[in-house]
Amino acid sequence: MLAVHKDRIANAVSRLVSENAFQVLARAREIEATGRRVVHMEVGEPDFDTPMHIKQAAVDSLMAHDTHYTPSAGMLDLRAVIADYATRFRKLSTPYTAENVTVSPGAKPIIWNILSTILNPGDDFVYFDPAYPAYASASKYLQANVHAIPLLESRNWRFDLDELERRVSDKTKAVVINSPHNPTGGVLLKTDLERIAELAQKHDFLVIADEIYSRNFYLDAEYVSIASLPGMQERTIIVDGFSKAYAMTGWRLGYAIMPAELCKNVTLFNNNTFSCVTSFVQKAGIAALTGPDEPVQEMNATFRKRRDRLVEGLNKIPGMTCTLPEGAFYAFPNVQQITHDDKALASFLLEEGGVACGGGSSFGAAGKGYLRFSYAASLDDIDYALEQIAAVLPRYKA
Ligand SMILES: Cc1ncc(COP(=O)(O)O)c(C=O)c1O
């Protein structure tokens, strides 16, 4: 085997952060291979099958010979459908057009391409902690000056607005928000968005709104996108995709929506990296956005039941307390009465109890002392996981 010398790997690679959920998944699979039952609550993917009409659209497209390259921004008909959907769903006064949309193999690569487009080394970039790891990974790789503002359990995983005000300035290039939020399930209120919007306009920064969980939303209120607030559409980059709403994680289909000039530049990165997205997968995306919405609503109703069962159960386990998530499909219990070493506890629960979950600190320093459970698991699996946690936890030595 070719030995890899240290100097064969670029220094910049040391600034990359890895998504821990995939490592936990690998270990969980090893344990399963020995014949033991493992409940998968580590990865953020719906356990439902992709709705049939979406699969059929991909099959039809393949059979109609959609097997070639497409434009780097995505097929025009898909971009037009996304623009129309985004305008209606977010109730925007200025309609988006295909020119505002760029399509990618999942939302993760477009986060990289957006940050590569806007960040110079040393630019101030703000995100919230804990957070989906791609923001820290990409911005650190690009040598931005990173500010991570803690999200507060006491505010149901929203941040202190005054702290945000103290941390942004005319030097701030962009702030990324993610509501509903991975890993906490928190949702920003309209008043939070209004304050961010006010600061964005005062200091002239961009807002990257990662709205990939906008359809996984359980509040009895309307979903509000920051793009719909006065003066914000022209300074908002929306990140969205099909993975979470339509149970399409393996298809790899995401997109971003932004002012047209910016969009051309982000597309240049698409062109230089993945060239374009799989043709028949894009046709499936059209079917998802134009077809029946009931499958999405049914999946969400199921997620809601699972959330209630899991959170109620976690709150009964001595030493754990859990806020009620308002969106996404994650519960983020506080385990600080048991330990602050969340990763060691997560590993113990997997090895001893067969329950795969994530340590909160994998999502940033402010996640220390928390665990992340994805409730994309059946009620039966959730009940089993709760029983297992309760059974093995007394043996845990912090
Ligand atoms: C907040 C957030 N943004 C983006 C993504 C990327 O999604 P995908 O690349 O599967 O479309 C994820 C996936 O877990 C996420 O949690």
SSE diagram, text form:
Elements (H helix, E strand, L loop, with lengths): L19 H14 L5 E2 L11 H12 L12 H14 L11 E4 L2 H12 L5 E6 L4 H8 L3 E8 L5 E2 L1 H7 L4 E7 L11 H14 L2 E5 L25 E6 L12 E4 L2 H14 L5 H12 L3 H23 L13 E2 L10 H12 L1 E2 L1 E2 L11 E4 L4 H14 L6
Parallel strand pairs: 1-11, 3-4, 3-6, 6-7, 7-8
Antiparallel strand pairs: 2-9, 4-5, 8-9, 10-13, 12-13
Helix pairs in contact: 2-9, 3-9, 4-5, 4-8, 10-12
The chain binds pyridoxal-5'-phosphate.
List keywords for this structure.
2 domains; Aspartate Aminotransferase, domain 2; alpha/beta; 12 helices; binds pyridoxal-5'-phosphate; 398 residues; 8-stranded mixed β-sheet; single chain; Aspartate Aminotransferase, domain 1
Task: Please describe what this structure looks like.
- The protein has 2 domains: 6-50 and 295-392, Aspartate Aminotransferase, domain 1; 68-290, Aspartate Aminotransferase, domain 2 (3-Layer(aba) Sandwich).
- Helices cover 39% and strands 14% of the residues.
- It contains 12 helices and 13 strands.
- The chain has an 8-stranded mixed sheet with strand order 2-9-8-7-6-3-4-5, with helices on both faces.
- Helix 3 runs parallel beside helix 9 and helix 4 runs parallel beside helix 5 (134-141).
- The model has no long low-confidence stretch (mean pLDDT 96).
- Bound molecules: pyridoxal-5'-phosphate.
- Pyridoxal-5'-phosphate binds next to helix 4.
